[in-house]
Predict the structure.
Amino acid sequence: MPEGFHKVTTSIVLLGLAAVWGTYLAVWWRDNRAGSGRQSDMIGSFNRSLDTLGHTAAPGGQGIRGSVNLLPRSASEAAQRRRLVITCLVGLAVSTLLLSLVLGAVAFLTNIIVDAALAWYCYAVVQRRNIEAEREMKVTMLHADHVQAPNVIELRATVNA
């Protein structure tokens, strides 16, 4: 390697870290400034106080932590969450595999653990889908006799007219 290579590399890394920290602090300062302007708003302050009061008086004595709902609100939100988890696990598996080529046994052991977590999660997703499909099939079979053909409805309409 050339003689000044390490100095240049260190300078580039320090410059990159300074840029990242500068960006973070600028965003933090902007958000803090925007938040301080809203605190002087009396209606907003009153609404925040009511929200806080409502969360602390949750039924069942659960308090603030019990009022947070981590369940998805819709099927599309649940699917999006599943895609995000699988994407993160795949990214971790690939990165730990690449790191195991460089770092050795510890990173390889981490890769095996992440691969096991990915396999377990995929298995759980498939099992959940199978249970839903079976449940849907049972519901369809149980209520199949209640489904009426369109011509029966037309005949009833003509008879009743």
